Amino acid sequence: MHAIRVHRVGEPEVMRYEDLALPTPGAEDALIQVKAAGVNFIDTYIRSGSYSRPLPLTLGFEGAGIVTAVGAKVTHTKPGDRVAWTDVLGSYASHVLAPANRLVPLPESLSFEQGAAAMLQGITAQYLTHGAYWLKTGDTCLVHAAAGGVGLLLCQIGKIKGARVIGTVSSAEKARIAQAAGADETIIYTEQDFSKEISKLTQGAGVNVVYDSVGKDTFEKSLASLGVRGFLVSFGQSSGPVPLFDLQKLAANALFLTRPSIFKYTVTHEELLSRAHQVFEWISAGKLNLRIDHIYPLRQAAEAHRALEGRKTTGKILLIPE
């Protein structure tokens, strides 16, 4: 099998395309031939050392493919099944060994590319709006990086839920993309102070919730954009980790702050299936459109990371094993 391995942390150049022995499934595992793997910011955090993991390792947390073998105790999937997954480290590869209880059946109505693109970002957008904060009709939400992978999905789900969606983007082109996905208003943060614009757009009331995947560069102004009893959902750090913070700052408007993780919102197999199935249903019904920005061969994973970290993408990046 082929895999993208990291032996030391650093820039994209540390990733190596290597040959490995094909693993044998344990009793509760499944071996899958990977048809498409998703590229996400968490992969760059691990590669760079921002998130610590034992090395060496194979990168990647999500994908879609075909089951080729299962362990003796696996009963809910079998060789030949089409499946998708997230929270399975080692997905930048031609084959991945996964706990069978982390696999989700992939409907025939979805391609492998759609399955890989939907899992981590799709389920993230689902739990952010149906768990971390339950978005509802009449809410106003601020979505940072609204033209990114999760951002575009949040814009669309916001409209499904009947909320007013305001998105921040870096350019006029990305503003058009976010608006096409459902953003009612967009703020070009490279030209405008987004917290001041939020005050204008809400007549000083602030928003009910901010979905913030940026971290350090947006944190303080995200708090300032919230109304009374507003929620700051900080779920990423593309600009770097948030500095130490005085909780007393939440008191003035009785604000809520949460730092959720997809891994804690898909703890059980049943919860994982429920969230994934809702995402798949939205896609199949045409309510949720996946924007796949670029597809790279597996051996070009470094180029995919450079594009993602350079904020040159809108939507999803995939890797396809040769």
Biggest pleated-sheet summary:
7 strands, mixed
Helix content: 25-40%
The number of helical segments is 8
So what's the CATH class of the largest domain? Answer: Alpha Beta
Care to describe what's here?
The chain is an alpha/beta fold and 322 residues long. The chain has 2 domains: 2-119 and 268-320, Quinone Oxidoreductase, Chain A, domain 1 (Alpha-Beta Complex), CATH 3.90.180; 137-259, NAD(P)-binding Rossmann-like Domain (Rossmann fold), CATH 3.40.50.720. Helices cover 28% and strands 27% of the residues. It is built from 8 helices and 16 strands. Strands 3, 5, 6, 7, 8, 15 and 16 form a 7-stranded mixed beta sheet that branches. Helix 4 links the parallel strand 10 and strand 11. The chain is globular. The relative contact order is 0.16. The model has no long low-confidence stretch (mean pLDDT 96).
Q: What is shown here, in short?
A:
The protein has 322 residues and is of the alpha/beta class.
Which short descriptors sum up this protein?
322 residues, alpha/beta, Rossmann fold, 2 domains, six-stranded parallel β-sheet, 27% strand
Task: Please specify the SSE layout and strand pairing.
Elements: E1 2-6, E2 15-19, E3 29-39, H1 41-48, E4 57-58, E5 63-70, E6 82-85, E7 95-99, E8 103-105, H2 112-132, E9 140-143, H3 149-160, E10 164-169, H4 172-180, E11 185-188, H5 194-201, E12 207-212, H6 219-224, E13 226-234, E14 256-258, H7 269-284, E15 292-297, H8 301-309, E16 316-320
Parallel strand pairs: 9-10, 9-12, 10-11, 12-13, 13-14, 15-16
Antiparallel strand pairs: 1-2, 1-4, 3-5, 3-7, 3-16, 5-6, 6-8
